[in-house]
Specification:
8 helices, ten-stranded mixed sheet, ATPase SWSAP1, alpha/beta, 280 residues
Length: 280
């Protein structure tokens, strides 16, 4: 969700952010994160941590690969943080797309559950789930991605209705999915054009977060990325610079008119962010 990523980037900025980096409230915040699988996973984890610890939201994190420890970028960026402190994050390890679909569909049962539904549903590396999978009534190659994307979108909308009833109209549930666009398609022997997959995902995930690696100071152990948050309707793009330091610290700074912004003004309080997202 775009606003949560904005909070993440401010949270891990090298200073405080002077400009308004939020999207309009009319923009639906389901987000597709595109880029290298390792760096996108770090961004997803930062989003989960920020949503859970700073905003007090419940997070559901689907992944094929269990986390044995905190990512190095997170350990370095938040010294002393431990996995057990992420009490609002539930990690669900599912190996196949069929299992993922079944687990997401079961979230509709929360309508009669006393427990609070998640406010953020994260799916790590959706392209890995799609390889070799067949889910949905259609038999074409795009059917699995359309089926799971529509299910995630509709489930988030359904849970939003529950959260709004329980949180005086302030609760929201959004989806964040990572995807490596250079995957080989949904069949073992079939190459499916990435733009076709992305066109389907864009129907349900209206915000893109694109991570593009740029040349950094390799000798100093620094890796750099340009980060683009964009929406189609209304068309809007926010640009950030992301730096992975030699020690594993991730730092962000906004790019204004092609130049990095000088970060020297007080940031908005987390209380304001909580009011924006609701109590979850």
């Amino acid at each position: 969700m775009a606003d949560i990523l904005g909070v993440v980037f401010r949270r891990f900025a090298s200073g405080t952010v002077t400009s308004d980096v939020t999207f309009s409230s009319h923009v639906e915040g389901n987000t597709l994160v595109l880029g290298d699988v390792n760096i996108s996973r770090s961004v997803l984890f930062l989003a989960a941590v920020t949503a859970a610890t700073d905003l007090g939201l419940k997070v559901l994190f689907f992944t094929q690969t269990p986390f044995q420890s905190l990512p190095v970028s997170l350990r370095a960026s938040i010294p002393g943080l431990k996995l057990e402190s992420l009490k609002n994050v539930k990690f669900v390890y599912v190996k196949t797309l069929e299992e993922l679909v079944e687990d997401v569909a079961s979230l509709h049962e929360l309508a009669s559950d006393a427990a609070s539904p998640p406010s953020l549903i994260i799916v790590d590396s959706l392209d890995h789930y799609l390889l070799g999978s067949r889910v949905g009534p259609l038999q074409d190659a795009l059917s699995p991605v359309a089926h799971v994307a529509a299910l995630l979108h509709d489930t988030a909308a359904f849970l939003t209705q529950i959260l709004q009833k329980r949180a005086d109209g302030q609760g929201l549930c959004r989806v964040m999915v990572s995807f490596e666009s250079e995957c080989e398609g949904t069949r073992d022997s079939e190459a499916l054009a990435p733009e076709l997959l992305l066109s389907v995902l864009d129907r349900y995930l209206q915000v893109r977060c694109t991570l593009e690696e740029v040349k950094g100071d390799r000798e100093a152990g620094q890796n750099e990325w340009q980060v683009y948050l964009s929406t189609m309707c209304p068309s809007r793009v926010q640009q950030w610079h992301m730096l992975l330091q030699a020690g594993g610290v991730l730092e962000f700074s906004p790019v204004i008119d092609g130049e990095r912004q000088i970060l020297d003004q007080p940031d908005k309080s987390m209380k304001q962010e909580n009011e924006r997202f609701g109590d979850g």
